[in-house]
Design brief:
Blueprint: E1 2-4, E2 7-9, H1 11-60, H2 67-116, H3 123-161
Antiparallel strand pairs: 1-2
Helix pairs in contact: 1-2, 1-3, 2-3
Length: 163
């Protein structure tokens, strides 16, 4: 037997310890799946609004814009600016969750290394890597919160612009 985190553990117990970060890897995978869906939707929306803006710009050479067309062009410009900010928030979420997965994988590997060679003194590094992973997940959740708020703000602006 080997000593890890102040306890005598068997191989089975070490494997169980290594699975704790694996649960977080699975959770992060689900978060990444959800946020990637949002990423695709936002990017697609940016492309659609850009296309509409281009079509309106082509009409500008033909004639003078009506009041409604000017309002729509202004609305498109504002929404595009906000959507670009929103897509950056989504990107930050994905990066945080991916970094957290890497930290949880590192935690599992460090647990295994500590089991095989207790002389390395990895207890503090193991705890630090797991806690860093949790902190990065928390930061990613913060980005997701602000992204959701920004999405609501953009919809509110679009509704008000059409009134």
């Amino acid at each position: 037997m080997n000593q890890i985190i102040g306890q005598n553990l068997t191989v089975t117990q070490v494997i169980q310890l290594m699975l704790a970060p694996a649960v977080m890897i699975n959770a992060c995978g689900l978060l990444i799946l959800g946020i990637n869906n949002k990423y695709s939707i936002v990017v697609n929306r940016i492309r659609l609004l850009n296309e509409e803006k281009r079509r309106l710009a082509l009409k500008a050479g033909e004639r003078i814009f009506t009041y409604e067309e000017n309002v729509r062009l202004e609305s498109l410009a504002k929404q595009l600016k906000e959507l670009v900010f929103r897509v950056k928030l989504v990107r930050n979420c994905v990066l945080c969750y991916t970094t957290a997965v890497a930290l949880f994988v590192l935690t599992s590997l460090l647990i295994a290394m500590d089991f095989y060679n207790n002389d390395l003194g990895l207890k503090n590094v193991i705890i630090a890597s797991f806690l860093m992973g949790m902190i990065v997940v928390f930061i990613g959740v913060g980005f997701a919160f602000f992204e959701t708020k920004k999405a609501y703000d953009i919809v509110q602006y679009e509704v008000r612009a059409d009134e």
